[in-house]
Design a protein that fits this description.
The protein is built from two helices and ten strands, in the order βββαββββαβββ. By secondary structure, the protein is of the alpha+beta class. It folds into two domains: about 45 residues; about 60 residues, CPE0013-like (CPE0013-like fold, Roll). It is elongated, with a radius of gyration of 20 Å. It starts with 12 loop residues before the first strand and ends in a 7-residue tail after the last strand. The site of iron/sulfur cluster has 11 residues, from helix 1.
Amino acid sequence: MLEENSGQSAPARELVCIICPRGCQLSVQENPDGSLAVHGNACPRGQTYAIKELTAPSRTLTTTVRIKSAALPVVPVKSQAEIPKAKLFEAMQQISHLVLTAPVKRGSVALTDLAGTGISLIVTRDMERV
Ligand code: SF4
């Protein structure tokens, strides 16, 4: 359900599709049966995105982690899959306490079960020991 609205149809929710650079302006209306009708999408991915964004929003988390004994102080990482948006803050807090030690390989697991999601945090760059 999008919003409570004393017997009248709920106003449409507007959002921009972020799946591709075209950036379609989407309008989502709740049908009387509770299903969602998406308009403005130039392809089916926009409908999938809009419904997911309004019912179970999630994001791939991309950030950096501190690393010891490397040429740089941090190494880039990202979540192996999207995690719920509501878990992003908790995940960043968990990552802020993490310190890796070089060498690390691209694709290696920096952290398992990110914020209790069961999703791993993955290193996205090789970093040699210095
Ligand atoms: S609806 Fe399709 S074409 Fe439009 S921005 Fe989303 S992915 Fe791109």
